[in-house]
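Review this fold:
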Amino acid sequence: PLADDLADEMEDVDFDEEGAEEPDAEAWETEDDEGVEDGMEPQDDSEVTFSLHSASVFCVSLDPKTNTLAVTGGEDDKAFVWRVSDGELLFECSGHKDSVTCAGFSHDSVFVATGDMSGLIKVWRVETKEEVWSFEVGDLEWMEWHPQAHILLAGTADGNSWMWKIPSGECKTFQGPACPATCGRILPDGKRAVVGYEDGTMRIWDLKQGTSLHVLKGQDGHQDPLTCVASNQDGSLIMTGSVDCHTKLVNSATGKVVCVFKMESVAPKAPAGEGEEAESNSVESLGFCNVMPLAAVGYLDGTLAIYDLSTQSLRHKCQHESGIVQLLWEESSAVVYTCSLDGAVRLWDARSGKMISEYRGHSAEILDFAVNKDASIVVTTSGDHQAKVFCVQRPDR
């Protein structure tokens, strides 16, 4: 792999720039040195580095009200709430005994919730830094706050989705099939939620009644586990992504599939030799653009596909060197952000399919990221035990 890394780095070097070779040449020599943290990539474009985690940092969220606080959770069984401006620790969300894989603030930034893999969920009041509620469920798959209320929704490996009022703890469960509820999203109306399951089915739940409004299975569902779900701004359309590499567009009112986007394999898959794994691909992340009828889908093979919803066709394919972990749209423009296994954040213009800019600084893959409301900063978490804050103000603003 080192040789490949070198080849990639060679491509990135602009030999026309005077002295461009110097820092890179140096980095190559020290690549094998112990204690060199940035062996993979010497440049660091970040403004702030948060380094209190002692293992991979799995998740990050920004507080929605002020965008001044971040919460990060990691493999070290820890979660921290810290200031984005200077990386200053506000408080630790202590008491987890397993990797913290979910963390997020309530819609008004009053509460922060942290959830670990074993299913222990804790909620803290941000202002007082006090734990106000905790609950234990089965192995946790995902967790999300309600967009307008102090209500928390979570999906577990036994197929159930749980809903709690915070901090009273009143509880409701939505029983799915007997397989993990792999992903979920509360729709913008706050009355329904869409949940995807490992058996390829998808359900739209009525949160008040506790009943399932629509079930997509068989031909309408996916052939493999669902990996991600999203809805457009008014909640009329739902998009589901799966290990089967298909993305389905669903009318949330009727539960009918509007269209299916299939990613053709880039190359015919050669049968894997002994000890070799077959090249696998899957949909890893997806989202709707707020200002144009566009949707973005990120694949494990590094393809970012921009689909035109009005013509239901592929508009652009933006290739990454390595797998896309997550993508997010800017709130008020046709710019989509990706983070990938090569440790970089990239901004793409969805209208032209061209890359606008690229930010580096992590020495391992980026595992999660968040963009603030005015799209001026990106906060990333990585396998290198760090979280970073990047300023992404663009010249065209």
